[in-house]
Amino acid sequence: MREYEDLVSEIMACTRCRLHLSRRNPVPGEGPVPSEVMIVGEAPGRREDEAGRPFVGQAGKLLDRLLGLAGLSRSMVYITNVVKCRPPGNRDPRRDEVEACNIYLRRQIRIVSPRIIVTLGRIAGETLYSMAGLRWRGIRAERGRPVNAVIEGLQVILYPTFHPAAALYNREVLPMLEEDFRNLARATSRRGRSLLDFM
Ligand code: URA
């Protein structure tokens, strides 16, 4: 736990990229440590920047409901983002910002030690695939397909899906997102065991 606390303190004091200049609060992430399931989003938005907590805005409300479809609740999963500080105006995080922050995500994965990592949206999917040395063929090709991966020496299942914010803007996305979360409980079934067996 000491290792985790040290990591959070470092994120809180981080000046590794320009985003520290405009943030109100860094958003390290939250949830049980260790945790079977890790959810990785893109970057904090305005509400998260104010609260210092991930997914507390509109997208977060939808995420809570989606977790329910997978038989999960927020208290059962560790939630974080690729980038820990809010990009101004909610722009996409830039490549150098994602790279500067990646040391924190790597350490988080080692400490949280998840069996499954659910990535939300293109940027999280691309980043985790790249960390695992896998080729990303786009969100529509990869979403809802669990893949075995090794990240930081840890054998994990990557499970990409859309970002919940996409469903708030594009109604066509919501049924796919719901389907992916319903299937999440079965994501490890190829090993003959359900994800819920590990809870
Ligand atoms: N969108 C994200 O990607 N992460 C958050 O924490 C909130 C909204």
Instruction: Assign a percent range to the helix content.
Output: 40-55%
CATH architecture: 3-Layer(aba) Sandwich
Bound molecules: uracil
The chain-level mean pLDDT equals: 94
Highest CATH level, the class = Alpha Beta
Poorly predicted runs of 5 or more residues: 188-192
What proportion strand? 5-15%
State the total count of DSSP E strands.
5
Q: What is the CATH homology-level superfamily?
A: Uracil-DNA glycosylase-like domain
Give me the number of helical elements. Answer: 9
CATH topology-level name? Uracil-DNA Glycosylase, subunit E
Shape, please?
globular
Class of secondary structure makeup: alpha/beta
| Terminal residue distance | 20 Å
Q: How many separate domains?
A: 1
H-E order: HHEHHEHEHHEEHH
Strand line-up of the largest beta sheet:
2-1-3-5-4
Rg, Å, rounded:
16 Å
Largest sheet, in brief, is: 5 strands, mixed
